[in-house]
Structure formats: structure tokens, C-alpha cells
Amino acid sequence: MSEAIPVMKVKSFIKRPEPITIHPDASLREAARKMADEKIGFLVVVDPNDPGRVIGVLSERDIINAFGYGREDSKVRDVMKTDVISVRYDDTVYRAARLLSENNIRHLVVVDEEGRLKGVLSIKDLVYGEGALFSIIF
Predict the structure, then answer these.
(1) pTM summary value
(2) Would you say the C-alpha torsion 85, 20, 125, 8 has a positive or negative sign?
(3) Is residue 106 part of a domain?
(4) Which residue of 6, 30, 49, 102 could cross-link 26, Cys pair, CB 3.0 to 4.6 Å?
(5) What is the pLDDT of residues 1-15, one digit of tens each?
(6) What single-letter DSSP state applies at residue 112?
(7) Residue 33, C-beta contacts closer than 8 angstroms, at least 6 positions apart
């Protein structure tokens, strides 16, 4: 009889205690600088008056596309995606992995029961890192 893989929760895979966020009125250059400084490829765009309220996301791909088409002077709000795909803090890692795969994305916004920002989960967090799926399955 084989051992069952334990049910793992998203909260166990979040690497940063605080998600890296940006306001919608920031410039794309500011966003690119923040990504470079933090060594990340994804920012959560939050309401300036309520930092727990997610209003969009911005990826390095979004910035590259904007720069490539001459929109380097744009604001984050002009380029961000507002159709935010999220997972709850207490959801299973299986659900998170399925959402990443189905939507062909590399990051999920993690929220609590009230929809408040708790963190970001990346495919890299699931595959590499301490306690990652790769090390558990193989």
C-alpha cells in the first residue's frame, strides 16, 4: 500500500511575510525598479486608501509589453490586469496548482476569507523551495 500525500494548504507555501505591492498611480518605471530591487516578477496593485484591497496585478510581461509598444510613460493603472485570479489562504495546494495551469499564469494572489490580501503564491514556490511539491512527490 502506498503512502498518501498529505493535504497541503496554500499558507504553507507563501515565502514572504508581506506581499510586495504597488499603487495604481505609480509609473511603470517605478514598478520595474521595485521588481528589480525585490528580485520578483509580479506586483499586487492595491487601493492606496486600503492596502488590503486588491485592485489589480502587474507582471514583468505586462511591463515588457508596454515598453515594447512605446508606453513606457504609462501608469500602473493603465497596464495592470484587473481580472485577478486568487486563491484563499486555506485552500489546498492542488486547487492553486490547478488554477495556475488552467489560466496559464505563474502567480496567484492569496486572500483571506474576507478577500483581503495575504500574499502571493508563485509556481516557483510550489515547485522549488523548502517543502515544495517536487520534493514531496519525488
Answers:
(1) 0.87
(2) negative
(3) yes
(4) 30
(5) 456 666 789 998 988
(6) -
(7) none
